[in-house]
Amino acid sequence: MESVFTGVFEKVVDWYIGYVEELPGANTQGKTLEEVRENLREAVELILMSNWELAEEEA
Would you say residue 2 lies in a domain? Predict the structure, then answer.
């Protein structure tokens, strides 16, 4: 099953920020848009994996 999330990217002075609207805590910053995109992909993966592991422990 594939999940689709909304990535939001903004340029703030000389930096870019990015976050996922549907996933609290998934946010990042970087000097380039590509860096922010890659960081955000990694943040989403880590959050989803962590949430999955926590759900398994509680079950």
Answer: no
Burial class of residue 12 in the structure, from the number of CB atoms within 10 Å of its CB (0-12 exposed, 13-18 middle, 19+ buried) = exposed
pLDDT-derived band of residue 48, with 50, 70 and 90 as boundaries? very high
Q: What is the pLDDT of residue 59?
A: 74
Tell me phi and psi for residue 53, to 5 degrees.
-65, -40
Instruction: Specify if 38 maps to a domain.
Output: yes
Flag whether 47 is in a domain: yes
Angle formed at CA 18 by CA 7 and CA 14, multiple of 5 degrees: 140
CA angle 27, 31, 28 (to 5 degrees): 5
Residue 3: band (very low, low, confident or very high) from pLDDT cuts 50, 70, 90: confident
In a domain, 18, yes or no: yes
